[in-house]
Design brief:
Layout (H helix, E strand, L loop, with lengths): L1 H11 L5 H9 L1 H6 L6 E7 L2 E9 L4 E3 L1 H11 L14 H19 L2 H31 L18 E5 L2 E7 L1 H29 L5 H6 L2
Antiparallel strand pairs: 1-2, 1-5, 2-3, 4-5
Length: about 220
């Protein structure tokens, strides 16, 4: 077991292979594309809206049938959906930009340790963003105006999947930007796993690390 730990920590200090560096640099592309398409889409269908209403949540803004949805929200006492009420989105473009810069830095001069750090950071970012998204939807559904024309029990809108709310069938699903970030996540985790596995095999075989190979005469 001690030797296994030693091999693992030796692997952490290995510089990344050239192939991994190229793949990491290419993975910045889906991060950039995530700004151009929605992260999440919430759609609602009811007898009076047979064509449905939709809300597209981007990394930096919200678009869709906002006016109609806010009119409906007024009748049940739910807060307005606007840029101010969704200020939680403000940090997402900054976080994605920092992530892209860190990935490029790892691709240029990084080691396996740095790659793992970026992977863990992305997992934290994703879980935090989903948690804030859930909390915001919960807050909208549990802070209803008691003087609203139509009385409803507090509720949590659909987070993932379909949910019936009054006479509306609400569906909430990830959109294009979430799939772009999913591609990034799969790529980074795959590269990290491959680098760790190859490093462990090299350490077990007694091969010199890439760092040692670079500094040896």
């Amino acid at each position: 077991m001690r030797k296994l730990y030693q091999r693992f920590f030796e692997t952490l200090s290995r510089p990344l292979s050239g192939r991994s560096r190229i793949l990491l640099a290419l993975l910045v592309i889906p991060i950039g594309l995530s700004f151009t398409v929605p992260l999440w889409r919430i759609s609602m269908v009811a007898p009076q809206y047979p064509d449905g209403l939709a809300l597209d949540i981007y990394a930096h803004t919200v678009e869709g049938d906002i006016q109609e949805i806010n009119t409906l929200n007024h009748y049940i006492g739910m807060g307005r959906i606007d840029r101010a009420s969704l200020s939680d989105l403000d940090w997402i473009p900054f976080a994605l930009g920092v992530l892209a810069l860190l990935v490029l830095r790892v691709a240029a001069i990084g080691t396996v340790r740095w790659l793992i750090d970026v992977t863990v950071l992305f997992v934290y970012f994703s879980l935090f963003a989903l948690g804030r998204f859930y909390y915001k939807l919960w807050w909208f559904g549990h802070n209803l105006d008691p003087t609203a024309p139509f009385k409803m029990e507090p509720f949590t809108p659909a987070i993932l999947g379909t949910k019936q709310i009054a006479n509306f069938t609400t569906t909430s699903l990830p959109a294009g930007a979430s799939f772009c970030l999913g591609i990034f996540a799969i790529g980074v985790i795959g590269i990290a796993a491959w680098e760790i596995a190859s490093g462990m095999r090299a350490a077990a075989a007694g091969a010199p690390t890439r760092r040692e190979s670079l500094v040896s005469p």
